[in-house]
Each structure stands twice: as C-alpha cells, then as structure tokens.
Amino acid sequence: MKNNGWLRFFFLLVLVQALSIGRSLIWPELIGQNLPWPASPLNARFVAALYWMGAISALLSMVARRYAGVRISLIEIGVITGGLLLLTLPHHGAFTPETFPYRWLILYMIDPLVVGLILWRTRSRDPAPAARNPLATLFIVYAATLVLVGIVLLVAPALAAQLWPWTLPPILGQVYSVFFLTFALGGWLAAREPGWEGVWIYVAANLIMLLLIVAVSLIHADRFKAGLETWIWYGFCLAGVLVFVGALIWRPRRLATSGAIS
C-alpha cells in the first residue's frame, strides 16, 4: 500500500504541531505558549528535543513511499497525543480560565482519533507484520530501558525526581514518561518489522533526538547534579547514539518485505 496524499497531509499537520514546541529548543522562553506547565530552560529544551523526535518522524513519513514505512510513526503519534491528553485531564482543576490549555486539549483529542481512524481503515489492506527484524535485539534492549525509566517517572514521579540528573518537577516527569513509554512501544514494534523499510524512520528519528538531548545536556551541564545519575545519563545517551549510528551504517540487507529500502 502506497503512502498517499491525505496521509502525507496528516503528517504535515503533525510536523507543524511538533515544531510549535520544538522551537523551544532555541527559544526556551516560548515553551509556555504550548506546554500547560511551567518549565525551566533545561526542561523546556528537553521537552523540545522530545518533540523533535516527532517532527523528524513526521517529516520523513511525508517522503516515505509506502505505508509500511510510516506505520510505527503513526502509532507513536496516536499514543503520545492520547497519553498526554489522559495525563492532562486529571489536572484540569489546577488551571484558571486564563491558563486553561484549550488548544492543547483540542489538538490532543483530535490526533489520536484521526490516528485510530487511519489504522482502522488500513487494517486489512496492509496488516502489520510479525517477524523478527535483524536489529531486534537492539530495539528490545532500548525499549526495555525506556519502559523501566518511563514506569518510574509515571507511577513514582517524586522518586524519579530524586534520581533524575537535574531538577525535575513531578508533573514534567510524568510528561516525559508518556514519551519514553511510547518510544519503547515503537522499539517493540520495530523489533517485529521484518525489514529496513519499516524501521528506518524510527532509527533516524531516535538518533537525531538523542543527539539533541546530548547537546541540550552539554549546554546546561551546570544544572546537572554531581553524581552517578549524571554519568548514567550521559552513558545511556552516548550508547544510544553509537548504536543507532551503527544501525544506519549497517542498514540490514536481508529484507523480508518487497519494496523495502536497501
């Protein structure tokens, strides 16, 4: 099944949404125009780096030739936006009429509904495969690490804040958990994609995100705690960069799907 025009248009809209927060990578003071909660410059730039993962995924999905290449990106968009919506709703009482995030809630109600409709319409024309990718071990280890961190951030945000390498408000820790758990789901889905076509966008987007996170961490190195948590942070980020760079260089040749990028 080809990646058609209306699907490319949807990814264009997602790209615009992601860039509206992604711009905080350069101008962290603008984060308050989109994010419902206040964030320090370091946290603002970190949020922006996470959104750049979505922006790169959407951009690459616009140029992908077949639906198989954008399936993981599509699912991640639906899970992230739906997850952030569910995270925001219990906190609605903390907002005033002037600060209530109407645009945030409206967009994050529409996006998962649209994704669900797309997945339902394509379920029989291009069903998701269930085979082992040559890079499956990489994806599973990456996903398992993100799941562990994401669960702690979600269910024990106060504990996570103590273990985090910089000052982290609990609500932002839960925001991060939505992204980490979604990226972990993406890794699990990537492990089940038999060829390179279904995973190359995931690999490229994660690599760029990790590079941005390393850059943000270095810019704000003075805000990091002097302890083991900081060494673990840099170690994981750099290991992820090396692994995804290696994946892009290797580009598995034993593809099980026709029309995949070689």
What does this entry look like structurally?
By secondary structure, the chain is mostly helical. It has one domain. The chain is 66% helix and 0% strand. It has 9 helices and no strands. It has helices spanning 5-22, 41-63, 71-88, 102-122, 136-155, 157-163, 170-192, 200-219, 228-250. Helix 3 packs antiparallel against helix 4 (102-122) and helix 5 packs antiparallel against helix 7. The longest helix has 23 residues, at 41-63.
Quick overview:
It contains 9 helices and no strands.
Keywords:
262 residues; mainly alpha; 9 helices; 66% helix; globular
Rg of Cα set: 18 Å
The class by helix and strand makeup works out as mainly alpha
Q: Give a quick account of the main beta sheet: strands, pairing sense, barrel closure.
A: none
Task: Report the span from N to C terminus.
Answer: 18 Å
Task: List how many beta strands DSSP finds.
Answer: 0
Shape assignment: globular
Quickly count the domains: 1
Please outline the helices and strands.
Layout (H helix, E strand, L loop, with lengths): L4 H18 L18 H23 L7 H18 L13 H21 L13 H20 L1 H7 L6 H23 L7 H20 L8 H23 L12
